[in-house]
Amino acid sequence: MDAIHGLVEQPAALCVAAYVGATRLIDNVLLTPPPTALSDHELELVSHAINRQATAGAEEP
User: Fold this and answer.
1) H or E element: which one contains 42?
2) 31-61 exposure pattern, b = at least 16 Cβ within 10 A, e = fewer
3) What is the pLDDT along the chain (61 residues), one digit of tens a residue?
4) Strand, helix or coil at 58?
5) What is the tally of structural domains in the chain?
6) Which domain holds residue 32?
7) What global pTM score does this model have?
């Protein structure tokens, strides 16, 4: 395993082992990066495609 510094860009595991008094606590959490946001250009293309589908659907009897 390698240490991660900064943003999580691929799935990773956060593993913790700690003592609270005489009690040992162990926990593991799966970290997954957030989905990539669409660029403004990609959002414009998707919006245009949705509008074309809506217009085509409204024209059909």
Assistant:
1) helix 40-59
2) eeeeeeeeeeeeeeeeeeeeeeeeeeeeeee
3) 677 787 777 888 889 999 999 999 999 998 887 777 778 888 888 888 888 877 776 665 5
4) helix
5) 1
6) 12-59
7) 0.43
